[in-house]
Design a protein that fits this description.
This protein is of the alpha/beta class. It folds into 2 domains: 9-211, Rossmann fold; 222-291, rRNA adenine dimethylase, C-terminal domain (Helicase, Ruva Protein, domain 3, Orthogonal Bundle), CATH 1.10.8. It has 12 helices and 9 strands. The protein has a 7-stranded mixed β-sheet with strand order 4-3-2-5-6-9-7, with helices on both faces. The N and C termini lie far apart (61 Å). The chain binds S-adenosylmethionine (SAM). The site of S-adenosylmethionine (SAM) has 24 residues, from strand 1, helix 3 and strand 3. S-adenosylmethionine (SAM) is lined by residues 27-32, 56-59, 62-63, 77-80, 83, 104-106, 128-130, 133.
């Protein structure tokens, strides 16, 4: 066991006091202090001694210690430079398989990093991130085709519910479809505020996204697929027909939209929120085939 072994409030407080650390609100710093949650994250990320793991936002290195014990190699990317000495000289000093990078994750070229450090082979991503950058990060990982086997990430409980939302439910929306196009979501644990220091105001959840080898549905035009989804959910209570007709980003005639909805086997009053991912794919292909 490394010393200090983190993951309980006493050790976390000791480290924070030793370095006179000030929590930075703008970096969303809520450190995990619950060993049960830490073990669950590592278990569900399915990390073995063959795995290369990228941790986004290691904080004082609590989760990183667990990851380093389970994985072949861990690269931990942390934006806050005041945490780097804590990680390097203290909490992670005993781990030869951990590399710490002081950078903003939004500015790191992960494809290049994975090519350099792991011969371009798929990696596992683990993170307990500030909530305001969670969705942009997940979407950019998928959209930029970063080679990923899975992502195991702490998110706001409400965001986890939306990621795995199903048609016709209040949680179903553009985020559900974007995530489920690329990956299979599974909620690993609901995590109450008392598992963190300091305590956040809202509940969190750990979600595991198991990436599909290729997207779950096949579309002629991926950009159009996402535009249609966005337009369909822009005004939730409107019909699909009105959503598509009113969108500034789409340029289909009324007749074409009505015809495609009919060909989809739906009535004129159908709402976008009732369509499955397969139906959105079919709608995309119906609307775009006439351009080919
Ligand atoms: N992983 C630690 C844990 O579980 O205790 C810390 C989690 S804390 C919620 C989020 C961490 O992400 C902080 O250490 C914060 O400084 C870091 N962070 C915030 N924005 C970041 C960014 N853009 N790039 C890299 N790290 C970031």
């Amino acid at each position: 066991m490394p010393t200090p072994y983190l993951g309980n409030p006493q050790e976390t407080i000791k480290i924070l006091q030793k370095y006179n650390f000030n929590f930075q609100k703008r970096f969303g710093q809520n450190f995990l202090i619950d060993t049960h949650v830490l073990s669950k994250i590592v278990d569900y990320a399915d990390i073995t001694k063959d795995d290369f793991v990228i941790e986004i936002g290691p904080g004082i290195g609590t989760l990183t210690q667990y990851l380093a014990e389970a994985a072949k190699k861990v690269v931990a990317i942390e934006i806050d430079k005041s945490l780097i000495p804590i990680l390097q000289d203290d909490t992670l000093k005993e781990f030869a398989n951990v590399k710490i990078i002081n950078q903003d994750i939004l500015k790191v070229d992960l494809n290049e990093l994975i090519n350099r450090e792991n011969d371009g082979k798929p990696v596992k991503i683990v993170a307990n991130l500030p909530y305001y950058i969670t969705t942009p990060i997940i979407m950019s990982l998928f959209e930029n085709n970063v080679p990923i086997a899975n992502i195991t990430i702490m998110v706001q409980k409400e965001v986890a519910d939306r990621m795995k939302g199903l048609p016709g439910t209040k949680d179903y929306g553009a985020l559900s479809l974007a995530v489920q196009y690329y990956a299979k979501p599974y909620i690993v644990a609901n995590v109450p505020p008392n598992c963190f220091m300091p305590r956040p105001k809202i509940g969190s959840a750990v979600i595991n996204l198991e990436r599909y080898e290729k997207p779950i549905v096949s579309v002629n035009d991926e950009k159009m697929f996402f535009k249609l989804i966005k337009a369909s959910f822009a005004q939730r209570r409107k019909t699909l027909y009105n959503g598509l007709r009113n969108s500034n980003e789409l340029d289909f005639s009324q007749e074409k939209i009505a015809e495609a909805i009919k060909e989809l086997g739906k009535g004129a009053s159908v709402r976008g929120e009732t369509l499955s991912i397969e139906e959105f794919a079919k709608l995309t292909n119906l609307l775009t085939k006439r351009y080919i």
